[in-house]
Every structure is written in structure tokens, then in C-alpha cells.
Amino acid sequence: MTTLDRQPAQHGFFRRGLRAFIHFFSYHLILNRQSAQVTRVGGFKLSVRPTVFHPRFFLSSKRFVSFLDGLDLRDKVVIDVGTGSGVIALAAARAGSQTVIAADINPNAAMCAAENARANGFGERVHGIASNLLAAFAPRPMFDVILSSPPKHAGEPRDLADRGWHAGPAYRDVADLFDQARERLKPGGKAYVMVSSDSDLDLFGKRIQEAGFNMKVAKEYSIFIESFILYELTVR
Predict the structure, then answer these.
(1) How confident is the model at residue 58 (pLDDT cuts 50, 70, 90)?
(2) 8 in a domain, yes or no?
(3) What is the pTM of this model?
(4) Nearest-CA neighbor of 92 among 79, 110, 105, 111?
């Protein structure tokens, strides 16, 4: 078994071809679009700017939102790392969070999250910030809950738009996520991270354990081509 207690996905010729086709289609028709789009996801009306991960077409965001709807986050200080449109941050606010930081390396996403927060009545509690993971924040305990749905696939991104899909070779662009989260999580806090059954679960598990977290599956959602796996992380 892997460090995340499941077998790694077998990427045969058909699987690799299917994934390449899906990425080609997604990149040219969705990720790299040239205009903003308005959509509804999880009960929120969202404006999705160009280069920003689109939560209607990529189902991981919607599944994360449904999970957060079952949590009690009253009075919690929360950060959503890699927020995209901000829909996960909005769900955290709807679940009662006192303050939610919607952080993304893509400045278009940070602006998008702030706009969507105001449009959905959460402008006073959800704040969009451009940040490479959690690097914009001092390495001290400051968050009760850390949320992240990072890019699910390794590989060099073509451009800013593709960073929502590819996290660099060996997941380079999210390599520091877990160490940074460990430093910034308050005592007794929790992190929730969503990965894919197609992700390198061995590598993710190794980095999680090296950062000093215990982990367990909080929820798993299966779709036709993969599963989305939500891990709950607590400090050892």
C-alpha cells in the first residue's frame, strides 16, 4: 500500500491517452478561454475570469463545497490555498467562518475570489490575496482550518492558465504546501486537502508525513475517470 493507504493508479497507454485528450480539450476550451464567464456552483453565482480554474467544468471544487456544507466552521479563521474562483472560500464562509483568506498565486484568481465574495454577500469575511501557497503569511500559528485543492497532475504548466491543472515536475509548485501549513496551523487545527486517484499519492503521502501530520480519509467522491479524495490532516 502507499503512504495514503491505496494502490497507485496504473497509467497504461489508454489511460495516458485519455488523460492527454481531456487536458487538450480542457486547456483550449476552458482553461485558456479569453473572456470571463458567469456560472452557478454550490448555490453561488460566480464570475470566472480568464486563466482562473473553472468550478463548473472541473468537478473537484463542487465536491469540496458539498463536504464543507457538512462542517461547522463557526468563528474559525480559515485559508483556502489555491482558491481559483473562490467557491471553496465562499463555502467556508457559509459554514460559519469568521474570516476566510482566499489565496492564489494567480492574481486574476485572487481578484475573482474577492469579487465573488462581494457578489454573494460575504465581502466582509472573505478576502482575496495573491500568494504563492502560504508564503505571504508569517510562519506562525494563525489559522484554525487550512483548505486546499491543489493541481492534481504533475508536469510543466504551459502558462498561468495551466497552473490549475499541472503542478510542475514532481509537483514542484506545491512541494512546500504541507510544511507551510504545519507552521501556520493553530494548535488543534485541521487541514483538508483534496487530491485525485490519478495524483502521485506516494509523493503526497511522503510530504504530508514529513511535515508532521497524521492523515485520514475524510471523504471520497468517485466519477467516471477518477476519484477525488479529501484528506483530513492533524498535527502529530
Answers:
(1) confident
(2) no
(3) 0.89
(4) 79
